[in-house]
Amino acid sequence: MPENDTMQNFLTELHRGSLTLAVLGSLREPRYGYALLQTLQEQNIDIEANTLYPLLRRLESQELLTSDWDTSESRPRKYYTVSVKGKVVLAQLLIEWGNMQRSIEDICGKGEDNGKDQ
Amino acid sequence: MEKTNNNLIERYVYDVARRLPEKDREDVKKELRANIYDMLPEGASDDAVKKVLYELGSPVSLAEKYRTRPRYLISPAYFDEYVSVLKWVVPLVGVLVMLIGFAVGAFDAAKTVSTHVAFVISGIMSKGVSMGVSAAFQALVWTTIGFVIAEHSGEKKPKMGEHGWRIEDLPEVQNAKAGIRLSEGIAELVLSVVFSIFALLFCTGRLPFAMMFAQGDMVFYNIFSQSFLNMLIPFILVSLLLSIVQGIAKIKDRRWSVFVCVAVVVKSLIDMALTLYLVNQPNILSEEFYSFLVQTGVMRALPSVGGTNVLVIAFSVLVIIGAISETVTTIKKTVQAHTK
User: Fold this and answer.
1) What is the ipTM of this complex?
2) What domain range is B118 assigned to?
């Protein structure tokens, strides 16, 4: 269905930027990839493994995350934590997030008004 | 079972990693392997492994997501320019070389004794078309290679001005009527080259051209003297060269630009000068044809003015009028295109 595809594209575009916030916010304490994926999905963040793992790698290369391999158990795991630089970025992004939300609400009206007017 | 599982996962991880830059491969492999095992219970079945791998998606798309920079042969920064260059280079080179092919085919045909018209024409056609098509492909390939080199040599276009572009560089809005159609340029090019080829063949005596005159019975005369025909050759070549420049200008710019205007004006003025010079040569006509004209009384019917035949004067006037009117209309069109 092309209409569903279009809707999916809108949602993906809308979610894209917020994923960085969700990941940085969740990694205030160390987590490995799959555990983080489960945490996010429990919070109803719509993210797939094949999006999260490359994103973690990118954030690490941008020095927003630090990582550590834990080889003490039978399966080696890479634990990620938000870095100092990451915390600064997160704080700035959160401010912007709040501003954007207020602007959008001012333009579109609060959630409860929507739909009734039309 | 554990072994086949490992094998599937290893194959998947390998297929993702091999699509990434070499420096990232080992890291990504290690991360991805750990993540996949985390997603599976201990001693998972083949089906469970397959399910997880399908969830991760195709290795191509996953590798694409791992790549920090999208890969381009020609990036959007160059693509517009690439297409616009292709649009004129490919047809131009194709048509030019096709015409050269026609010429080569024609000379080949003239060399052979065979006078079978169908054979000669098919030879000329196939030579022209095959050379034209292969040249068009060559043009496509080399233009592409040029742009790929520009893209990857890292010599990005220097940004102009403080904004990266300048208002002054915006093109004038083009009136659709002010444009020159691609077909016009190509048709002119084809016609002038074909005409020149036949003229050259004629002048060098390779084409059995002769004027046929019926006078009771059939008599054949060569109209022009051979000395005049020999003299004609460099003039034809100069005119052909000018036509090619004019054709290229029209195909490249497709509007009445200054370049097109200059090419057309220069061509029409030089053509005029050449024609006037040639028409006023003394020994244009062959002796046999001249004596034929004298015999039939045509020469007496045409008076001379100051030693010049009236026909020559009339023709010269027509040539001058034609050249001047073309120059004026060309300049008018160019001015119009630039003021709107």
Assistant:
1) 0.82
2) 75-154
Residues of A in contact with B65 (CB under 8 A): 50-51, 54
Classify strands B211-215 and B217-221 as parallel, antiparallel or unpaired: antiparallel
CB-based contact, A3 to chain B, within 8 Å: no
Q: Would you say residue B188 lies in a domain?
A: no
Distance in Å, alpha carbon of A7 to nearest chain B alpha carbon: 21
Q: Is the pLDDT of residue B158 over 60?
A: no
> What stretches of chain B adopt beta strand conformation (E)?
211-215, 217-221, 304-305, 308-309
Provide the b/e sequence for B249-261 (b: ≥16 CB within 10 Å): bbbbbbbbbebbb
- The reply to whether B199 falls in a domain is no
Q: Once rounded to an integer, what is the mean pLDDT over residues B325-332?
A: 92
- What is the count of structural domains for chain B? 3
For domain A2-113, say whether CATH 2.60.120.600 is its number. no
**Candidates A48, A54, A78; nearest CB to B34:** A78
Model pTM score: 0.58
Query: Which residues of A are less than 8 Å from B62 in CB distance?
Result: 50, 54
- Chain B residue with CA closest to A49: the answer is B56
